Each structure stands twice: as structure tokens, then as C-alpha cells.
């Protein structure tokens, strides 16, 4: 169950990052509310996952899911620049997430 909490927390991190971008510096009400609600939910689920997962593993995977997810949303939804270097960097993050998962009992 902690791994499920962790993955959902990471996905919620993507949602709050995107909605924060849409909030235009917290000047738009609904994106701002979505940001705050999903932040709270993401942190809450992360804290539940950390009850039984090591701190370094949980935090690294949570931030990795959020970083790569936000990167992909930026490209696919916001039309942000894609380059081989940026894709390689995201690939290294994914590789780190996989290795951390494999290294955790």
C-alpha cells in the first residue's frame, strides 16, 4: 500500500505543478484552489508512504515522478521546447527512480 500512496502522491505533484502554472502567480481562483488542495493531498499521501518506506527512497521517487510528469505535461500540454538533452535528462531521472525502487527492500 505505501507504494500506491507514493505513486498517487507523485501524480498529484504533477497536478499541483500544472495548476500552479495555470494560477498565474495565484491570481486566478480555481487553479489556485486546485493547487492548494492537490498539494495538501500529495503531502498527506507522501507522509503515509513514509511510515514504512525509507525517507530517501520515498522522497526521491516522489520528486522524480513530479519532475518527469511536469516535464511531460509541459511538453504535451503547454508546448514547451523539446530537445535531445532535455529528454536525456528526464531519462536519467527515470533511471534513478527505477534503480532506487530496485534497491529498496
Note down, in words, how this protein is organized.
One of its GO terms (biological process) is xenobiotic detoxification by transmembrane export across the plasma membrane. It holds the Pfam family Multi_Drug_Res. Keywords: Cell membrane, Membrane, Transmembrane, Transmembrane helix, Transport. It is a multi-pass membrane protein. This protein has 105 residues and is mostly helical. The chain has one domain. It has helices at 2-22, 29-49, 55-76, 84-103. The longest helix is centred in the middle third of the chain and has 22 residues, at 55-76. The protein is flat.
Mean pLDDT: 96
Count of discrete alpha- or pi-helical segments spanning 4 or more residues: 4
Low-confidence segments, ≥5 residues, pLDDT <50?
A: none
Taken in chain order, the helices and strands follow as: HHHH
Give the helix level as a range of percent.
Answer: over 70%
Shape: flat
Strand tally is 0
* Multimer state: single chain
**How big is the Rg?**
15 Å
Question: How many domains make up the 3D coordinates?
Answer: 1
Q: Kindly name the structural category.
A: mainly alpha
GO cellular component, one term: plasma membrane
Membrane topology: Multi-pass membrane protein
Main location: membrane
InterPro entries: EmrE-like (IPR037185), Small_drug/metabolite_transptr (IPR000390), Small_multidrug_res (IPR045324)
